[in-house]
Amino acid sequence: MDKKTVITGMSGGVDSSAVAYILKEQGYNVIGVTMQTWQDDCAPGEACGGNSAIEDAGYVARQLGIPYYVIDFQKEFRQKVINYFIDEYKRGCTPNPCIACNKYIKWEALLKYASENGADYIATGHYARIIKLGNGRYTVCRSAAGRKDQTYVLYGLSQHQLSHTLMPAGDYSKEEIRAIAKKAGLNVADKSESQDICFIPGGNYAGFIERETGNKCEAGNFVDEDGNLLGMHKGIENYTIGQRKGLGLPAKQPYYVKKIIPETNEVVLGDADSVFTDTVFADNINYMAAEGLDKPRRLVAKIRYAHAGAWCEVIPLPGGRLECHFDEKQRAVTPGQAIVFYEDNYVFGGGRII
Question: Side by side, which strands form the sheet with 121-123?
């Protein structure tokens, strides 16, 4: 093949490090780039662009003998990810910052950098495959990684972004990627991974929001489904739909968060059955496998990253929104999270639950 140049986003973790090695072995001209998004150290493992990530990624680049650069994307990260994260919690929603980071930082900003520097592609360590369908459109297909599959957080990518991206990790399991990194002698081969949001080690979201905004979370009322007062909450930023632990209310039967109402600063609680529904609405739709949807279609939908997926009928609504009717009721459908639709193992499209 012609020696194509690929800008590989290197997080300092094993996945992106192995990808850089794989691409070099395949004959690409590989350039490693770490997107510095956060000044401080982040959660351990597959970290964001903090200081420890830069140190680890730089070491791997030297091991591989490839050029390596650190690009300052802190301004973009704050505008597109941090501010979005805070605003969504203030609105009573539960955001997914990884999806925003993928679309606006790891792809939009990195592709711009690649274009300005004459590269043909960008590459990431995500566990997903990019395929081109018979209709000429690109989409992401489930990877060989099983439960580690990351197609859910990639639904927001555009056709242009997909057509200029390589995802070699999609052909391997996590264990195989570690084995490749070990065989290559990479120092991050056994590096652990974190389940936390990268810029909030420990997962204290409310505390992070208080520090960033300089404002204490405002206490308010817990109410039941009829509006009766049950007690006081510590601020809506502390809660998400379906939550049971940490409510601090004495009760014979456990309460669950059913709804968050930012206008009145109330958190509505109900019993276990109250957090199930078969109807979901979504907006901000991004279609991958088709240009749009003009009639109802049966698809499998995931309502959160760890959700197994369930069959539903998807109905287009005026204004570009979608209405989804699941065959079986789903637990804790959460405004602000993504709903991602699959057909034949690939992503048809997705949107934001409202």
Answer: 68-72, 29-36, 5-9, 121-123, 165-166
